[in-house]
């Protein structure tokens, strides 16, 4: 039922039912004509009874204002719009036109209908779904003016925001206009910075940015590096957060039994593969042999018939490139992964609240990033994963299981274990990664260094480890990034060194680009680069192919460097010549009046001599 105060805000004036819906003129006298009471009451009753709005009759407690065109204006809702919205779902949709579409959406928002639910007997589709299909099929949002009005309205009207974030077809249709209107995203971004609750407006903005990033990954949007930078800057209000936080996100959750049937602990959540295995007694955290390419231990328990009480801990692994579907060179993602393992309670209830969790807290595949402000080691940013240039760094986490005494279902098998996985995606970070990818493709290495220096060092070091797994242009990207942030050690350094050998073999032509960076690298990474280069040339190049390619690259790089320097010299000379000419012109302009003054003085003296 619609609250009376809500209806009071919607309608400017009311008619009394006791007055038999008698219309009153704006002037001093009443109109003699009556509104068709039976028709109007039938229209209201047929629609509102379906929604159990028994108190809506009370809204008719005032006066209508009747204009010359015979339209009854009720605040922002005209009579034709009111006649449209007071119908059943199918009739509302059939009455929609491109001209009345937005006013009808605003009216539906005012009325607070349960428009995402089915309220007509025998209907199989909600009103929101029907409108979305109608708009997509008719192609109304290809009209830039209408698309701009929709984008400009979702921040104020929750119904329009739901219309956007619940239907991918609408987001795709709004995409061309969104690139020209980053300010509609900026408003919601600022709300996220202020810590406001994720309502429909924020969800619509997040879904629009996510759709834009996915479209760029799939090659559906042709956007330049400069255009993307301009959109990103305007959408985030040209400023950075003083302290990085996990904002502007959306999550998707999947539940499955990873040890049931033919599964061996592998679980697909959307397009991401997650592997979980049990650790035997005594509990020993597993450390993978290769950083970035984690695998479960050889003695891991993955048999579905094994008992839960025989498991001392849980190992969750996110594979590297093998754990992703449909990844191309242009694919970009930024996400976090959390999971929980539980078994049903002894009563056999299937609800989540009665299940027994098999570990403390949640299982986050990547460790949080401690900011270290004021001596604090608390993580204000969740550890995130990156997919960039056909590569992704794997991750793993181990958690001890609860004690056997705490297990009510001590005899439960692994195949009864339920795993709930939540993937949290960061669309705005994905746009920044798209910009980074474009910088690499265009060889704008100074932009890469600037990006590394512009973000918090703790996050930049985490990014260095994530970037170490990229498959294209690895050497130039990673070493420019590391050289910009300075000293790198620990897991990030290990991940970088792990991929260096293969990187040099695959990117031998990028070696001349990174050689000037060696003095600014961490000594451990310097030595790793030198060893990987020597190993590639002396142990993996028996036919001298790599050496020849390296020499050609050195010559080519030197030639380009000389040509670039020559262009800089020519430009400098041209600038000097231009300034010289301008200076000479200025001096000539100053000299000319002085010479003219001297000539006038000489002529005056001659005249005086003649007169004498």
UniProtKB/TrEMBL annotation:
Chain spans, region Disordered: 583-612
Segments of skewed composition (Basic and acidic residues): 583-594
In its UniProt entry, what is this protein called?
Uncharacterized protein
Organism the protein comes from: Vitrella brassicaformis (strain CCMP3155)
């Amino acid at each position: 039922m619609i609250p009376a105060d809500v209806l009071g805000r919607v309608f400017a004036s009311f008619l009394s039912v006791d007055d038999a819906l008698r219309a009153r003129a704006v002037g001093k006298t009443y109109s003699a004509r009556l509104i068709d009471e039976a028709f109007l009451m039938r229209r209201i009753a047929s629609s509102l009874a379906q929604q159990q709005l028994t108190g809506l009759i009370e809204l008719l407690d005032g006066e209508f204002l009747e204009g010359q065109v015979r339209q009854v204006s009720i605040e922002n809702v005209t009579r034709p719009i009111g006649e449209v919205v007071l119908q059943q779902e199918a009739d509302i949709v059939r009455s929609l036109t491109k001209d009345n579409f937005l006013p009808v959406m605003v009216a539906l928002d005012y009325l607070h209908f349960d428009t995402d639910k089915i309220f007509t007997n025998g209907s199989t589709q909600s009103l929101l779904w029907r409108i979305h299909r109608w708009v997509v099929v008719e192609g109304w949002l290809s009209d830039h003016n209408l698309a701009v009005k929709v984008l400009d309205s979702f921040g104020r009207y929750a119904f329009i925001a739901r219309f956007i974030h619940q239907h991918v077809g609408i987001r795709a249709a709004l995409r061309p206009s969104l690139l020209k209107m980053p300010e509609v995203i900026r408003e919601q971004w600022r709300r996220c910075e202020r810590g406001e609750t994720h309502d429909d407006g924020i969800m619509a903005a997040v879904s629009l940015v996510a759709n834009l990033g996915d479209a760029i990954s799939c090659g559906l949007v042709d956007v330049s590096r400069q255009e993307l930078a301009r959109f990103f800057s305007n959408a985030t209000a040209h400023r950075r957060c003083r302290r990085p936080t996990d904002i502007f996100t959306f999550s998707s959750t999947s539940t499955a039994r990873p040890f049931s049937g033919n599964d061996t602990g592998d679980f697909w959540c959307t397009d991401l593969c997650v592997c979980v295995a049990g650790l035997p007694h005594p509990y020993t955290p597993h450390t993978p042999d290769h950083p970035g390419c984690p695998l479960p231990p050889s003695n891991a328990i993955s048999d579905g018939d094994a008992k839960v009480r025989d498991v001392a801990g849980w190992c969750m692994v996110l594979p590297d490139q093998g754990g992703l579907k449909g990844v191309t060179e242009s694919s970009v993602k930024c996400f976090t992964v959390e999971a929980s393992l539980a078994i049903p309670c002894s009563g056999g209830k299937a609800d989540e609240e009665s299940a027994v969790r098999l570990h403390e807290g949640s299982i986050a595949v990547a460790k949080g990033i401690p900011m270290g402000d004021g001596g604090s080691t608390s993580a204000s940013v969740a550890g995130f994963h990156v997919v960039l240039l056909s590569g992704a760094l794997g991750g793993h986490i181990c958690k001890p299981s609860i004690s056997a005494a705490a297990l009510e279902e001590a005899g439960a098998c692994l195949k009864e274990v339920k795993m709930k996985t939540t993937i949290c995606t960061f669309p705005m970070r994905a746009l920044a990664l798209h910009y980074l990818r474009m910088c690499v493709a265009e060889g704008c290495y100074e932009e890469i260094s600037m990006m590394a220096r512009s973000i918090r060092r703790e996050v930049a070091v985490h990014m260095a480890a994530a970037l170490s797994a990229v498959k294209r242009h690895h050497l130039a990207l990673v070493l420019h990034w590391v050289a910009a942030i300075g000293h790198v050690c620990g897991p990030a350094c290990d991940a970088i060194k792990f991929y260096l050998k293969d990187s040099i073999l695959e990117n031998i032509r990028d070696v001349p680009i990174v050689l000037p960076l060696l003095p600014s690298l961490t000594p451990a990474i310097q030595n790793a680069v030198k060893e990987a280069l020597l190993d590639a040339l002396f142990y993996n190049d028996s036919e001298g192919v790599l050496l020849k390619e390296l020499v050609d690259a050195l010559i080519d790089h030197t030639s380009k460097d000389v040509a670039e320097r020559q262009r800089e010299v020519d430009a400098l000379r041209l600038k000097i010549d231009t300034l010289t000419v301008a200076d000479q012109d200025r001096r000539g302009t100053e000299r000319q009046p002085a010479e003219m003054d001297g000539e006038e003085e000489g002529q005056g003296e001659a005249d005086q001599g003649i007169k004498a």
